[in-house]
Amino acid sequence: MSKTLDEVMNSLPAELRAAAEERGRELIREEMTLQALRKQLELTQEGMAQRLDIRQANISKVEKRTDMLISTLRGYVEAMGGTLELVAHLPGRPPVTLDGFAEAPIVRD
After folding, report:
1. Which of 6, 48, 62, 72 could form a disulfide with 68 if both were Cys (CB 3.0 to 4.6 A apart)?
2. C-alpha distances in Å from residue 50, one per residue of 3, 59, 67, 79
């Protein structure tokens, strides 16, 4: 008979279970779509559209893009109450936060 994830997790020692749960949270933080982030914050597309003063259809387009201007992404993240940092990870060097990108609002149709 197969076990559920909850059964497996509950059978682990507390320290190992805590480490596994923390790693799961790290993985979720590391990669999330804009749509998933918006939903996690319990925001609707309509609410985001109001915050950005654009149409709901444009929110849908932004969330489906695989390539966008940094200023568009920054505006979207800031409308959710966050900040955007652009960090470069290079071999043999510590991470570097890149500055100098002009702030601009999301492009409206």
Report:
1. 72
2. 45, 10, 23, 10
